[in-house]
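To fix ideas, we quote verbatim one protein's residues and fold tokens.
>
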Amino acid sequence: MIPFKVKAEDLPKMLTDFYSKRPLLPKNFFYDNQVGEVQGIYVPFWLYDGTIVGRARYDGIDTSYSREGDYDVTTTKRYHCNREGSMFFDNVPVDASVRIDDDLMDSIEPFNYREMKEFKAGCLTGFVAERFDQNPREVLSRAMDRMNASAKSAMKSSVNHDMAFFEGGHFEFEDPRASYVLLVAHIADMRERLGLDRCPWYGSRAAHREQRQRHGRYHLRHVRG
């Protein structure tokens, strides 16, 4: 897990200070407590390690221009380019909760894994800890999509032509390994001021209340290994 460095009660002021340095925000952004509640949350993630092995085909295009008498001449040359190789990845994060918005979690990367610590229950005091409800097999495809995209981009960069277009290929994820971790996020709840019933990162307010009544608050399921 990566523990929070700040206390829960300090989060609202930190958010206010952060946005106060954004001059393009509306002047009434902070009026009437518009920022709302700020909550520190431990979000469950699977971190994937492994090697992507694949091959890809690219359409390489070179274009040149010349003048012949009264005519402008455009010359286009096309090349069929094959690439193959492997790329090792480590600590590729995928959030492990269906209630947490995937795009939101992707947007707050990267995380500083050098601050990773062994799990300690005391670090959860004052913060919400979401529990995982997706096993590593269920979200493996998301990790593979991200790694495949990186591998394709790396292969494309080796196609030394003016333009390169991906035509097809095949990629495999070898020796996949997943580790369970808790990573930190700060969530500002602006639903009341924005007139929203559905929280963009965690379902509707009604579902949220039902979840808390059913489970008390959020709980943590800790998996060793």
Notes: Confidence is low (pLDDT under 50) at residues 192-198, 203-225. DSSP finds five helices and four strands in the chain. The first helix runs from residue 11 to 20.
